[in-house]
């Protein structure tokens, strides 16, 4: 459990970094020619790897912790990595097509999906959590009706915009499955990894998978050549900021998940929607 004095600060960090990430990606997609979805996803997975590098290394170096890497724990990491990579590909591909404002609105539907899947897995929701999920869901519907049309009329090609919207929604659903699954794995008595150690191994598996996917498609750093609207310095600064914000967000996410579970972490996405 997270110490009560630290918890509000961690929650604030979680929300702030969640706001910063789509804003940075939005600015990069207008600055970098043909920015592929795999680039921001690679920033996220490498940040997760950096979060857990110390506990993950300790788990490999000290004999008393080697049993943490048994078959069950490795299978848990691989399953969560598969879900996270899949949802990340869908979310980032959608974000690059429909823009940060619409992405955040759709992504915040994770609140409803996570509550649904958590309830299905046996998690009991409190009265306040049910009320919060209901209010967020109603707000998302109202916000969607008000903003989706204006976003589509704001210059985005219609087919590209609708494709991005569908990708974001699919990614949000899969991401909710990932969060609930990971929470169940971490709370399982057979789990021997700390949350940050789990994050580090997860980041290592995902970074390897994303890099393999990138190389297999013949991509290289040439994909990051700035357009006339941007500069190399701006691109480097933007990508570095994205890695840093993802690092902070991952640390905060695992603290929140440990302290309050998947539904509370999903409810915080509603604050992200309002701010963005």
Describe this structure in words.
Helix content is 80%, strand content 0%. It has 276 residues and is mainly alpha-helical. The protein contains 12 helices and no strands. The longest helix is centred in the last third of the chain and has 36 residues. The mean pLDDT is 77.
What key phrases describe this protein's structure?
276 residues, mainly alpha, globular
Helix content: over 70%
Taking Cα atoms only, what radius of gyration do you get, to the nearest Å? 19 Å
Average predicted local confidence, pLDDT: 77
* Residue runs with pLDDT of under 50 for 5 or more positions: none
The computed structural class is mainly alpha
Strand portion: under 5%
Distinct helical segment count: 12
Q: Total strand count, please?
A: 0
Oligomer description: single chain
**Biggest beta sheet attributes:** none
In short:
By secondary structure, this protein is an all-alpha fold.
Q: How are the SSEs placed, and which strands pair?
A:
Elements: H1 7-31, H2 38-51, H3 53-61, H4 63-66, H5 71-98, H6 100-107, H7 110-120, H8 127-152, H9 158-187, H10 195-216, H11 232-267, H12 269-275
